[in-house]
Design brief:
This protein is mainly α. The chain has three helices and two strands, in the order H-H-E-E-H. The chain has one domain. 30% of the residues lie in helices and 4% in strands.
Length: 99
């Protein structure tokens, strides 16, 4: 996670670490399947998405970049033009090139 944070600082894409709040696991329980891939509540979407993924990664180091919110810019910004932002691409590329 520290290497991903470093890459984000270098690219200007702001990210922060959210907790894997175990109490939120209740929100992805299902009466049909083992798990559901979307929260049953109106909050914790990024955290419940990460909790869902955590069920499948085992001991593999991983991060979850929740890109839905910053996927589109309403106006031009210093980092991207109005429209599809491609948020996270710069950070992932920097991370991969450095490590």
């Amino acid at each position: 996670m520290e290497r991903v944070k470093k890459a984000s600082r270098q690219t200007g894409e702001k990210i922060w670490e959210l907790p894997l709040e175990k109490d939120y696991k209740e929100l992805i329980k299902s009466h049909i399947a083992d798990l559901r891939n979307i929260s049953s509540g109106r909050y914790g979407g990024a955290i419940t998405a990460a909790l869902f993924l955590s069920e499948f990664v085992g001991t593999t180091p991983w991060v979850h970049l929740d890109i839905a919110g910053p996927a589109y810019e309403e106006k031009n910004t210093p980092l991207v033009a109005q429209g599809g932002a491609g948020f996270g691409v710069r950070t992932v590329m920097k991370f991969l090139m450095d490590y």
